[in-house]
Amino acid sequence: MQTTVRGTILGLAAATMVAIWSIGAAAGPAQHRAASVTIVWAASPISNNGLRQHLITAFERAHPGIRVRLQSQPTNTDTNRQELITEINSGSATPDVYMGDVIWPAQFAQAGLAMDLSKVFPSTFWRRFAPGLVAGATYQGQVYGAPFFMDAGFLYYRKDLLARYHLPVPRTWTQLAVDAKTLLAHHAVRYGFVWEGAAYEGLTCNLMEYLTDAGGKVLSGTKSLFDSPASVRAVSFMRSLIVSGVSPAAVTTFQEPQAMNAFAQGQAAFLRNWDYAWSNSQSSPAVKGKVGVAPLPAFSASGYPGYSNIGGWNLYINPHTEHLAAVRTFIEWMTGVAGQTQLATYASEIPTNAQVQRLPEVRKLNPVLGVVSRVRLVARPAYTPAYAKVSSALYTNVNLALTGQLSPRAAVAKAAQAIAQAISGQGL
Ligand code: GLC
User: Fold this and answer.
1) Does some domain include residue 12?
2) Hey, whose CA ends up nearest to atom 9 of ligand 1?
3) Distance between CA atoms of 54 and 342, rounded to whole angstroms?
4) Does one domain contain both 320 and 346?
5) Which atom of ligand 1 is nearest to the CA of 311?
6) Are residues 237 and 333 in the same domain?
7) Is there a domain that residue 216 lies in?
8) Cα–Cα distance list, 426 to 115, 223, 227, 419, 421 (Å)
9) Same domain, yes or no, for 389 and 364?
10) Each residue's pLDDT tens digit, 332-376
11) Which of 230, 254, 366, 385 could, after both became Cys, cross-link 214 (CB 3.0–4.6 A)?
12) Does residue 379 lie within any of the structural domains?
């Protein structure tokens, strides 16, 4: 069954590509073919099946006058950002275009690290995107990133194991703990629930989900609201997952790849991860065909579905690029029907292009799209240029609570203090 799905995924992408290529060839500007230009695209890995290179190959076929060289970036968004900041601040004209996190627009706009795209694309260009995404890439009235794909947090579970032990797909965190403990008691898995608890941006994403469900908030405008009973409840619960053995202590060092690997190797019953985890799991023989995807649980049954943090990546232009026309063509293609269909069917990403989100053939191949319409979404407070510091205050202190070095209450108080400091004197 899964082999068929996989084959169909590739089949659909190929069929779509052929259609798009022929349109591209008919309209293809002959002058591009003569004068070839090479642009550099910086991007971290999107999935484990070589999607970036597939996109590049398809783009080059559609636009034979433009070559794209991939500059591979680290998977950790914080390290990725630091490398790009250093490179662009040095005045380098490469990368010409880069895949950057949805939390970067305010910081990058303020620091002059991204071109104002409102001047690069006509207003008609922005109509292709699903509602809300362009607003998320806007800082002080100008758009700095073209939405490339959206991420949301989901619960992945082992269908086969839940069925074998007659356990429900959890709708509350308490039920998830009961399911996990039952499976652990039967030695059906090594770990109950794996997630991203290392001291980095991904922990902030996980925290946002528990915090919002508990009724808490990080910021309101430039006011820190983090020092609250809801924050203590969220952090205490995360720590309790480890203390009770539902999650291994190792989650305090896990980023997405480690959590993904534990689940893909069949070691864990539950995984919190982004949309691409579905396609990643289908390429792993240990769990292929045995994985279900659902909204994250909530603290109470009436709160179901729980909250999913909004992640995702935009395409930004280096203000020093010398190839603006080619970069514009690249972004148009990547956010158009051809590029977005590949993203959604090859790597179960959530396309940003509204038309592609609705295509029945895409929805059929990407089960995550059916779930995302049911979840409650929450964004990180990335509207301030100080967001990187705010997030670092959160993940550093919450990680210390997860490892038991700080009590949840102390971690919340310390984080709140650091947030207030980071935000003081910062505008929006
Ligand atoms: C995913 C999300 C991104 C988030 C990151 C955290 O890549 O798309 O928005 O910052 O994970 O690890």
Assistant:
1) yes
2) 311
3) 8
4) yes
5) 9
6) no
7) yes
8) 22, 11, 19, 11, 10
9) no
10) 999 999 999 999 999 999 999 999 999 999 999 999 999 999 999
11) 230
12) no
Banded model confidence at residue 186, pLDDT cuts 50, 70, 90: very high
User: Is the distance from the beta carbon of residue 153 to the nearest atom of ligand 1 less than 6 Å?
Assistant: no
Count of structural domains within the chain = 2
Indicate which CATH number applies to the domain containing 102: 3.40.190.10
14 or 426, which is more confident: 426
- Using the predicted structure, report yes or no on whether residue 4 has a pLDDT greater than 60: no
For residue 372, how far is its CA from the centre of ligand 1 (angstroms)?
A: 16
* Size of the chain, expressed as the number of residues it contains: 428
The answer to whether residues 179 and 170 touch, using CB atoms and an 8 Å cutoff, is: yes
| 389 and 366 in a common domain | no
| DSSP secondary structure string for all residues of 92-160 | ----SEEEEETT-HHHHHHTT-S--GGGTS-GGGGGGBPTTHHHHTEETTEE--EEEEEEE-EEEEEHH
Q: Which atom of ligand 1 is nearest to the CA of 196?
A: 12
**Contact present, 85 and 303 (Cβ < 8 Å):** no
Distance 187 CA to ligand 1 centre (A): 32
> Measured from the CB, is residue 274 less than 6 Å from ligand 1?
yes
CA nearest ligand 1 atom 3, residue: 311
Average pLDDT, the chain: 92
Kindly state whether residues 64 and 183 are assigned to the same domain.
Answer: no
277 with 137, same domain?
no
Q: Ligand 1 centroid to 30 CA: how many Å?
A: 39
C-alpha 331: how far from its chain's center? Answer: 19
Last residue of a domain, one of 354, 374, 394: 374
Does any ligand 1 atom lie closer than 6 A to the CB of residue 100?
no
Q: Rounded to the nearest whole angstrom, what is the distance from the C-alpha of residue 64 to the centroid of ligand 1?
A: 32
pLDDT digits (tens, 9 = 90+) for 9-60: 333 333 333 333 333 333 444 444 556 999 999 999 998 889 999 999 999 9
Question: What range defines the domain where residue 359 resides?
Answer: 2-144+311-374
4 C-alpha vs ligand 1 centroid, how far in Å? Answer: 30
Distance 142 CA to ligand 1 centre (A): 23
* Token pair belonging to 219: 């910021």
Q: Are residues 160 and 82 in the same domain?
A: no
Q: Are residues 12 and 51 in the same domain?
A: yes
Q: What percent of the chain is modeled with pLDDT above 70?
A: 91
Does a structural domain hold residue 149? Answer: no
* Residue of 44, 47, 149, 201 to mutate, ligand 1, most atoms within 8 A of C-beta: 201
